[in-house]
Structure formats: C-alpha cells, structure tokens
Amino acid sequence: MVRLERRGGNVELVRPDGKVGKLSQPGQPDRLVALARREVRDCLAEELRRLDPDEIYGAALAGIAKISRGRTPISPMMNGAAT
C-alpha cells in the first residue's frame, strides 16, 4: 500500500494481488487500476533506453562535494564502477 498524505485528504493505492490496484482519493469513487508486476528484464531494458544524464545522481555528487571539503575527494569512478 502507498499512502500520500495531503491537506485535502489521503490518496491511497493498494495492490493486494499484484495485478490490479485500488486507487482511493477524497471526493472520488474508488477506481481499479491495471498494475501488473513487471519482469526485471523489462525494467532493465527501460532503464537502458535512457541514455541521458542522471540529474538526481549528479546533484547528489555535487552535494557530497559541498559537505566533504577538506577531506579526500571522492571520485564517482571509485568502488569498482569503472576500471
């Protein structure tokens, strides 16, 4: 179950059987939503189609640089990411 807490009321999404989810929103009737589980290979293929820069990862690295001044620099190529 996923619950988003909002001022206007909570939005909930429940998927008990792994195929169909129930979406509940304030002031609206509950709706059934097709939410079949995806295979890992399908998720991986989708990620590999995206060859653009990862903006969130880049921002995280920039944040690390700000808080690690005076320490040994951390390279994104460390930890076996590339050899």
Describe the structure.
- The chain is 28% helix and 19% strand.
- Strand 3 and strand 4 (31-34) form a beta hairpin.
- The relative contact order is 0.09.
- The protein has a domain at 2-34.
- By secondary structure, the chain is an alpha+beta fold.
- The mean pLDDT is 83.
- A 4-stranded antiparallel sheet has the order 1-2-3-4, with no helix packed on it.
- It is flat.
Question: What is the element string, with H for helices and E for strands?
Answer: EEEEHH
Envelope shape? flat
Structural class: alpha+beta
**In order across it, which strands form the biggest sheet?**
1-2-3-4
Task: Report helical residue fraction.
Answer: 25-40%
- Sheet with most strands: 4 strands, antiparallel
Query: How many beta-strand segments?
Result: 4
Mean pLDDT, to the nearest integer, reads 83
Question: Which features would summarize this protein structure in a list?
Answer:
about 80 residues, alpha+beta, four-stranded antiparallel sheet, about 20% strand
